[in-house]
Specification:
The mean pLDDT is 90. This protein has 2 domains: 2-160 and 350-362, Rossmann fold (3-Layer(aba) Sandwich), CATH 3.40.50; 170-347, Glycogen Phosphorylase B (Rossmann fold), CATH 3.40.50.2000. Helix 10 links the parallel strand 9 (215-220) and strand 10. The chain is α/β, with parallel strands linked by helices. The chain is 49% helix and 17% strand. The chain contains 17 helices and 13 strands. Helix 4 packs across helix 5 (94-106). The strands form 2 sheets. A 7-stranded parallel beta sheet has the order 3-2-1-4-5-6-7, with helices on both faces. Strands 10-9-8-11-12-13 form a 6-stranded parallel beta sheet, with helices on both faces.
């Protein structure tokens, strides 16, 4: 069969690659055309747009890039029409994907949405579009199936969280981080989007001199090297590209920009502080519409503050230094790791990618 896949950011590229890998095991005649990144490219098929061209986060940032986004939407529709896929697989990236799904449904294409839009957090009105435009929805958070069924009378497929399976395999692998390290490591995760990196990396840099007994190492993406160089200039801060999990294996603690990386860090049992800062406009709009108490997946799943979140004005050098100093104390590390154990139990041990692939190919 022919599969058209749309992933718009680094986490989608990771999960998309695993779905493609699993589909190939079931359908040996599978043909892929996709929007994604290096991981999906590694599986094979034709990449149409790279995630570096796609990822805009925040209301202001979207407005500033609206012409690019509209051109991408128009191009995507034409590209799908030309490919004529048997299945369209949307991976997260809801703002863009839901627009394409509306058009695709009218055209008679079969829509599969993997990693549900977080309508329980904001834009709950999207439920009407989901019911109308999505043929099959696959959710990955434990509470989502019940939420959709009880609140919206919609049956969705709960498939478990894909990171559990991925990280369990990664933990068992040989460490490939070839760096000379003489001190305990604190990992820095400034995000995957350009605006995140430009906003967060200078703040993270400012913290380093306060912890001379630790080695700070940045987790970077090789496809975005120029962004880091622009900010770091001549600073001698170590950076490793495309080795997130190898870095986490060696880390004592981490400063993490909110996103999938918060859950990855927890599953590697690394104590963390979640830091996030956006434009003031985006933050104020978010405060009006976002309904969740937390921004990190760890705290959302646990429904309480397990990891410290420093958001907007709290995301400052002084507060990060203070919270990191507290986090590095042994008793706090032990308490956090107990919470991480509960989190892992909540997420279960599903073989998520294969389960989704079987549903997509056979439904």
């Amino acid at each position: 069969m022919r599969y058209y896949i749309i992933a718009g950011e680094a986490s989608g590229d990771l999960h998309g690659s695993k779905i493609m890998e699993s589909i190939k095991k079931i359908d040996n005649k599978a043909k892929f055309r996709f929007w994604g990144g290096e991981k999906m490219k590694g599986i094979g098929g034709k990449i149409v747009k790279h995630i570096n061209q796609l990822s805009f986060m925040g209301f202001w940032e979207v407005l500033m890039n609206i012409n690019i986004i509209l051109k991408n939407i128009s191009f995507c529709k034409k590209d799908i029409n030309g490919f004529q896929p048997d299945r369209i697989i949307y991976i997260d990236y809801p703002g863009f994907n839901m627009l394409i799904a509306k058009w695709a449904k009218k055209k008679g294409f079969e829509n599969h949405f993997y990693i549900s839009p977080q309508i329980w957090a904001w834009k709950e009105s999207r439920i009407k579009k989901i019911k109308r435009d999505i043929d099959y929805m696959y959710v990955i958070l434990p509470f989502e199936r019940e939420y959709y069924k009880k609140k919206h009378n919609l049956d969705v497929h709960y498939v478990g969280h894909p990171l559990v399976e991925i990280i369990n395999k990664e933990i068992a692998k040989t460490d490939l981080l070839s760096l000379k390290i003489t001190k305990p490591v604190i990992a820095l995760f400034p995000g995957s989007r350009k605006q995140e990196i430009k906003k967060m990396l200078p703040i993270f840099k400012s913290v380093i001199n306060h912890f001379s007994n630790y080695e700070f190492i940045i987790a970077g993406l090789s496809t975005s090297k120029e962004w880091y160089k622009e900010i770091l200039k001549d600073d001698e801060i170590k950076i490793v590209y495309d080795k997130t999990y190898s870095l986490l294996k060696k880390s004592t603690a981490a400063l993490v920009t909110s996103g999938t990386a918060t859950l990855e860090t927890a599953l590697f049992n690394v104590p963390q502080i979640v830091c996030y800062k956006s434009s003031l406009f985006s933050y104020l709009i978010g405060k009006l519409y976002v309904k969740v108490k937390f921004i990190s997946l760890v705290n959302i799943i646990m429904d309480r503050e397990v990891v410290k979140e420093l958001i907007q004005k709290d995301c400052s050098k002084s507060k990060i230094v203070n919270e990191l100093s507290k986090l590095l104390k042994n008793e706090n590390v032990l308490n956090l790791k107990k919470e991480y154990k509960i989190l892992r139990e909540r997420l279960g041990k599903e073989k998520t990618s294969l389960k989704v692939a079987k549903m997509i190919t056979k439904i």
